Amino acid sequence: MAAEKHFIAVDCGSSNGKMVDIAYDGNKIRIAGSKPFFYEPVTILGCMYTDIMHIYNQVMYKFKEFVLENGKGTIESIGVTTWGGDYGLFGENGQLLSNMFQHRDERTIQTKKEFFSLLSHKELYYGTGSIYFLGLGPSQLLADKRFSPVYEKTKFLLGTAGVLTYFLSGCPVMDDTMASTLGFTNLETTAYNRELLQKLGLRTDIFREFKAAGSIIGDVAPGVGDYIGDRSIKMVLDTGHDTPAALPAVSGLDERTMFISMGTMMLAGVETEQPRVNDKLFEGGFRTVKCAFGKYTTYRDVQGFWIMNQCMKGFQDRGYVYSFDDLEAMARKLPAAKCAINPNDPVFYHRSSDMMSRVQDYCRETGQYVPERPEEVYRCLIDSYALAARNCIEEMEEGLGTKFERIRLFNGGCQCDLLGETISACSGLPLESGIRYATAAGNALMQIYAAGEAASEDEMKELSGRSFRMKDLTCDDKDFWDEMYAKYTDVWEGH
Ligand SMILES: C[C@H](O)[C@H](O)[C@@H](O)C(=O)CO
Question: Is the minimum distance from the CB of 265 to ligand 1 under 6 angstroms?
Answer without folding.
Answer: yes
